[in-house]
Amino acid sequence: MKTLHIIWFVLLSISIFTSCEKEIDFDGETTESQLVLNSFITPDSTIAANISESQFFLNNDYLFKAVENAEVSIYCNGILKETMQHSLNGKYISATKPEVGDIVKLVVKVPEKEEISGETTIYPKANVLKLDSIVIWTGAKPIIETVNTVDNGLPKTETIVVGKYRFRTIRYILTFEDAANMKNYYRLVVSQTSSFEGKKKVNYDYTLDDIVSGNTKDLLPGIPAINESKNQFHVFTDELINGKTYPLSFTIRDTASIYLPEYQRPLPKKTVEIDLQSVCNNFYLFLKTRSDQQTASPLFSEPIQIFNNVNGGIGLVGSYTSNVVKVTL
Amino acid sequence: MTKYILIFIVFTFITLFTHAQNVTISGHITDAKSGETMIGASIYDANSKKGSLSNTYGFYSLTVPRGMVNLSYYYTGYTSKHQSFDLNRDTIINIRINESIELKELVVIGNQKNIGVQGSQMSTIDVPISLIKTVPSLFGEKDVIKTLQLLPGVKAGVEGSAGLYIRGGGADENLLLLDGVPVYNVNHMFGFFSIFNADAIKNVTLYKGSFPARFGGRLSSVVDIRMKDGDNKKLHGSLSLGLISAKVNLEGPIGSENTTFNVSARRTFADLLAQPFLKTAIGEKGLEKARAGYYFYDVNAKITHKFSDKDRIYLSAYIGNDVIFTNIKQSEAKYTNASGGVNGYETNWLKMDWNWGNIISALRWNHVISNKLFVNATCSYTHYGFDLAVGNENQTVRYSPAKETFKNTTLTYNSGIEDVSAKMDFDYSLNSNNDIKFGANYTFHRFKPGITVAEMESNTSGSSDTVIGDQNIVSHEAIAYIEDNIRISRAIKANIGVHYSSFLVQNHFYNSVQPRLGIRYLLNEKLSLKAGYASMSQYIHLLSNNNVSLPTDLWVPVTKRIEPMKSQQVSFGTFYNLNDFVELSVETYYKSMDNLIEYKDGASFFGSSTGWEDKVSVGRGWAYGIEFLAQKSVGKTTGWVGYTWAKSERKFDRPGEVLNNGKTFPTKYDRRHDLSIVVAHKFSEKIDVSATWVYSSGSAGTLSLQNYLATDIPGTNPTSTVPSDATTVDVTNSIPYISSRNNYRYEPYHRLDVGVNFNKKLKHGTRTWNISIYNAYNQLNPFLVTVKSNSTYNESTHVYTKKNTLIQTSIFPIIPSVSYCYKF
Hints:
heterodimer; A: 329 residues; mainly beta; Immunoglobulin-like; 2 domains; eleven-stranded mixed beta sheet; four-stranded antiparallel beta sheet; 2 helices; 9% helix; disordered N terminus; B: 824 residues; 22-stranded antiparallel barrel; five-stranded mixed beta sheet; 6 helices
């Protein structure tokens, strides 16, 4: 009898706490694919655009269809500048270099498809005043290498300490002045170029620990935010700092290699590029909603619509204006 | 419509002065056993064929022609009382009526004689607490709101939640009144339970349309919940223990019959049971001495004192909170000296306390000015607050050389709303044909839109604090109303009134005049036709973008750009009494709503009201439907069948406010068909059973039906792989595209709940074992539908394959529960 009770209890527990997920059939209508236009425009650089087709969400094709027969026209301030040329995989290029203040419109015509278009205004460069930094060394560990030697005529493998890695946290304070007479949108991009890696630029996964970014995560060290949102693309508005000079702080973590004198070797030259981008409203909304969409809990909120500004289609035509400060580590 | 209402008002005043040589009978109607006042009891004079109803405080006034009267007093579930005498002057008669032994079976929707065939009011349902205690419920927690969800025209939110979506309205368009005081957050446990403890409640009335003029401030419904006064004969009480909570109720006289009290308290106890397990679990990871958990509690208390037959005073209060707490020692380290001895220690604690809930209190005074005029004066306070405090405590102690350091950091966040209000309500029985209610109300609102305070205290680096957030916003709301329940002829009865409201906030002044009308045409004693019209305004919004109620949801007032929401509703219905056995009603309605707000695409609210106006669009909506209700309220078997066909849509197409490309879209809970069947049967005094079955069409959800290529964003590390051929592009980095709002229908929802009560009389009271099963046939109803994508790479063929599937998540499978109750 006791065994029966235990079995009953286990079965009951399983029935209550089993996973409540199941695969269901879609009984709605299959929607038609739409044209997708993506272009991120920056002043003094040629305009490029990507054109492809969206696909129905239950379509199991692994690849999106690139659109290669589109006629893509560039208008600057309402004047037709040029028709873009297709290069590869739906990528279209041009020779047009827009300037700050320009209103750029891309119009896409594809046979047997409705015309689509997107437009953006190019914002002026952010007014960066200065950059300060504080370095905190946080720890170290030995650099261990394996060397092959010969001992009594026999090959031998040894591990030796050739130096140490020192870990550091660098807290930067980028002071900039927000333009008072307009609504501004910013994005901070921090990347590093190492001379050892063919000058390949790698973006830092850094922390924008400042309340103007809307991220209260590290408002006080160690205290979790009330509603932590990741702000994956490090975008923020001038809502709290309109017209003010503001010291924006952020932190990167880095490692320095220090070799013992007998094992000295050339060290890589590291350059940190700090780019405070002035982005258009459309680009800001796109980045913000993409970040929110990736971090929102589907249990509690409706799916987040990623912002798009392409009339008749999908995608984004946005712009950003960089202001880069370089620091050598 | 307004023109016809004005004509009606003129006609009303003509009738006011056409009666003379009448006398008035007045008094209070109470339960003979407990002394509890009876709300909505009927008084009827068979000779003059005139009748009246007792008001919220049990007071009635009936004016009849001088001479012989043949009075009857009715209340469903009670033995009717009859009196005949010669009446020559105004008389006070306090009536005590006894609960019917024959009709002691489970009582369903009460007082349909008043608001059913005979009454002028439509779209109104009285739900007695005995019914709420009968209906089987989730985890055995008897819930007012979830019982209301079983009525036609009322739709629930997500599975298990206590949300109310009434006749196409939103969750924030319901005015929930506890003893006449607004309640701003009616949810415990993120909306899965309501704050209303059934043990403390006497009566619940739901108004879905044709609102009487005394109510206002919300577009879609009024839920008027009245607390029990307390037994004035002897001390009574009950103790209950359920699956998740324990409850206690005590009521009785204080000193004499003139003063009574009623106190009910409830607390969940899962946190208490979980602590030992939690400590064991966390202790294994070296984080001993931990505390963490969640609980909610609420306390209702009421004291009533009767000074005389003419004066009574009531003091009622509610306090309830949800609490989440964490207190964890994150780390503890010992310092050692050169010889290996202990030379100090360092500890780090993480503390977090969430606390949210309501405080409500009301002091009211009833005074019978004359046998025709009754006044109720009320001062009330209501507060909803959300408080969060998170902090770190770091302490370092070194013995040699002696040094002690500490650093405490705390982040607190507070938001909420509080009201202080004063109002006067008058009931004036002018003559046998006119029962007039009029009054005025002033409310001072203080909105607390979210303040964050960061504090740091240290004996090495000093102290600092930072305050972020918006200032409190205050507003002033004033209303005045007058309504007349008028008997125009034997067949025609009407409730006509007007509600005026004004709202002053940050130098913006809004006001509105809202006419109300309810009219009944009696075809015969068993059959009537009714029509209703109501215009409503709402000056506050609830910012929330969640499917469930979160404590960070924030009430904000209207602004210069966001104008008050308005609605107009017309309804028609027919009511039929089938042999005093079954009440049948069919109602149809059309409601238009304006200045509704919705979040713009991509906008979200996360506990801060900053710039909320820019995140929302303003638009309009409409809802229409037909509701059918058949109910049997007497006999051993009672219950009802409710069916609703409804449609609810929104359109946001104003310049600068466009949503969904300006196209019409359905609301999330736009369920076309809704059926509920509630049955209770009493086998004997020892055993009764009940069951509910609900079926509704699937609610609407938003699904991304297309995916598109996410081009690499400048300034990010590339994520796409190299394209495999010239005409296609890799989809590893794709973006879901939502073409329109609420573009997908969930599967239909259906559920059976069953319950059985085993009652036994003991020496000093009665004990009841309740066993109930929620979702008895384990239907996995949709809570959420998401797209799941599985990609695989075949290393031998170098081919990627992808499979997208729709996954439905359900949260409440079959849930049995048991509870024990002892009443004395």
